[in-house]
Amino acid sequence: MSSSGVTLDAIPKVDIDKSGVFKYILINVTDKNKQEESPVTIVRGYAHCNYHSDILDEVEGKLQPLQCEVLGGGRISHDADFKRIKIYGYSQGFGKADHEVTANIIKDAYPNYTITISDEGY
């Protein structure tokens, strides 16, 4: 267990806003004190963050002292009423996340949703 009490297996894989269009990042989280543990890949996306780096700042603050490595970013359009999530675009600062990986992680958290990906758009 890290000194903050956060363990890799206790971190939710997905934390995104309940609806709307917003930026997201795909992150590998590791515990530098337990290098034998595999990293956990998580998705984070919030409308209140104007930049992808703002999401990282927020996540790092919550997960201290765990290490966060951004794998890329993009945008998510989350339509809760119709149970649809669209993953698309890229981050100017972190590059494009692997939307296929993102979709697979989100499918586990939103099993009754239709999830689509696209390389179109910013």
TrEMBL record:
InterPro entries: Janus, Janus_sf
Source species, domain of life: Eukaryota
GO biological process annotation, one example: sex differentiation
Signal peptide: none
One CC-aspect GO term: cytosol
One Pfam family this sequence matches: Ocnus
SUPFAM superfamilies per the UniProt record, alphabetical: PHP14-like
Any one GO MF annotation of this record: protein histidine phosphatase activity
Keyword terms: Differentiation, Sexual differentiation
Residues of the active site: H52 (proton acceptor)
Chain sites annotated for binding substrate: K23
Family, similarity comment: Belongs to the janus family.
Chain's role: JanA and janB regulate somatic sex differentiation.
Name of the molecule in the record: Sex-regulated protein janus-A
Source organism of the structure: Papilio xuthus
